[in-house]
Design brief:
This protein has 3 helices and 6 strands, in the order αββββαββα. With 159 residues, it is α+β, with helices and mostly antiparallel strands.
Length: 159
């Protein structure tokens, strides 16, 4: 997990937020990691992260079974073609049964797969390179969105 966080911190303009006690994030998010493109280093407003790492079950997301110690999951927003290549399905047409607790396997996110998110529980030898490649792609896509939103003369109404 720390290796992936360190890798993302090395991306130009990346902001990695790991909430903890005393911050503005709810206790439920403490210890998780959120990846943003933020060239000014400030927390982006009205922007979702392009990737996350979660270390615990959430009320609506327990399929990956984080109760045993040492389990965690990286989640990454993927473009539609990449999602289809990795999962064999379209994001909005997921029908295959999956074991979302399986480690070191790329699969649709158990909750946000329909929105194009993929996930890997405890990336290992089979998936770490893919996870890093996916995070680089998601970071580049976030950079492009940022550039479009900050074009000179562009109004916020166009977003």
């Amino acid at each position: 997990m720390e290796q992936i966080i360190a890798t993302v911190r090395g991306f130009a303009g990346a902001l990695v937020v790991v909430p903890g006690p005393g911050g503005d994030f709810p206790e439920l998010a403490w210890g998780d990691a959120f990846f943003y493109y933020a060239p000014d280093g400030g927390m982006p407003q009205n922007v979702q992260p392009y990737g996350t790492i979660v270390i615990k079950n959430y009320p609506d997301d327990a399929a990956s079974d984080f109760d045993p110690p040492g389990r965690w999951r990286v989640n990454i927003h993927a473009d539609r073609a990449t999602f289809r290549e990795l999962t064999g399905e379209e994001p909005r047409s997921l029908t295959r049964p999956r074991d979302y607790a399986a480690a070191d396997s790329v699969m649709p996110h158990p909750v946000y797969g329909v929105l194009g998110w993929v996930s890997v529980v405890n990336p290992g030898e089979r998936t770490t390179d893919t996870v890093v490649q996916l995070l680089r792609s998601a970071h580049r896509a976030a950079c492009a969105r940022f550039a479009r939103r900050h074009e000179p003369g562009r109004s916020l109404e166009n977003d």
